[in-house]
Amino acid sequence: MRLEGSCHCGKVRFRCEAYAPVPFLHCYCSICRKTAGGGGSAVNLGARAATLEVEGREYLGVYQARIREGDGSCRTSSGRRHFCTGCGSALWLFDPDWPDLVHPHASAIDTPLPVPPERVHMLLGSRAGWVKAPDGDSDKHLDGLPRESLEDWHRRHGLLDD
């Protein structure tokens, strides 16, 4: 699926081909909560990095999160969160550990996206205390990370062209 996206102020526009375009995985970790704003629930899609086209690269900023380890030390995430330096909109994540992929934020996509058959709310163990995740029949809740990948979830629901 061809996706088109942009930041709020319009200085950055991008396009890419998504192999996993259904926004189902809602993240409540402190990184997503603080960089995307609100209570969390950032949703990343799966796209092919080679198809990413960007207008307004001069307005891009990149943030690499600091992750606190169990022993109290910190490490820098290899994930590069791209955002607009004009308005702060979160746009996509790229991680050189998976160089063939890019993960656009569903919130930055202007193309109508499919409605997911279920929603997975992950990393609820680190959500803000005032945040309540939706709890309908199609909502799944995880304190940590899912075992299933974006691709595998789409495949299980018959949403991939194999």
From TrEMBL:
<dbReference type="Pfam" id="PF04828">
    <property type="entry name" value="GFA"/>
</dbReference>
<dbReference type="InterPro" id="IPR006913">
    <property type="entry name" value="CENP-V/GFA"/>
</dbReference>
<feature type="domain" description="CENP-V/GFA">
    <location>
        <begin position="3"/>
        <end position="118"/>
    </location>
</feature>
<keyword id="KW-0479">Metal-binding</keyword>
<keyword id="KW-0862">Zinc</keyword>
<comment type="similarity">
    <text>Belongs to the Gfa family.</text>
</comment>
<dbReference type="InterPro" id="IPR011057">
    <property type="entry name" value="Mss4-like_sf"/>
</dbReference>
<keyword id="KW-0456">Lyase</keyword>
<protein>
    <submittedName>
        <fullName>GFA family protein</fullName>
    </submittedName>
</protein>
